[in-house]
């Protein structure tokens, strides 16, 4: 015989415990009593630290450029004109026919929609490029610097006119020949080598001068020694002449004396 299933009343306490753990359907979450009045007080703390432009001083180098419009000079106008020409030339390459070739299916089924997308994209690109170009001009202060360049050129031309224009007109570098450009690049190196060789030449000349002085001193010493020897030779010769006469007289008397003695000895 099989065992009877466990009695059902044993499961009722567990089910009742599960039911008690679930929240009551009618219970509504009570709003916090202290969070509501504290919320307005915490809002100022959540604001960004630099929301008030007058709270912290801004360095002078970070101040935004002046809002006064700057009138572009000839070079600035030419720069803008060149940018517009380049932009137009670039966008013209994206013609409607070329755009349709990129989307043949849409061009066949909805050509009007594709043309509208093409016009919108061209307008969008042109607007973005112009906006970015103007931003670069403003951030880099290109217009102001080009205007300053115009002023410097005007001052230089005015100074040349005051001087009568007698100065030599500079030759553009791109018109110079290869030999002139090579000499210009080597001038600094050759000048340095020339200076170094000049210093070495001065050192060699100084050494030669010292050697020449030593040779002259030795030559003068040799001449002095030769004169001393010559004087000594003259003294010896003079002494020989004096001694020669004295010795000759003494020898003659000695000879006569010896002859006399020999004669006396022979006579006796």
Automatic annotation (TrEMBL):
One of its GO terms (cellular component) is MIS12/MIND type complex. It holds the Pfam family Nnf1. Residues 1-73 are annotated as: Disordered. InterPro entries: PMF1/Nnf1 (IPR007128). Residues 1-10 have a biased composition (Pro residues). It is found in: Chromosome, Centromere, Kinetochore; Nucleus. GO terms for biological process: cell division; chromosome segregation. Transmembrane segments: none annotated. Residues 11-25, 35-45 have a biased composition (Low complexity). Keywords: Cell cycle, Cell division, Centromere, Chromosome, Kinetochore, Mitosis, Nucleus. Signal peptide: none annotated. PANTHER family: POLYAMINE-MODULATED FACTOR 1. This is Podospora anserina S mat+ genomic DNA chromosome 7, supercontig 1.
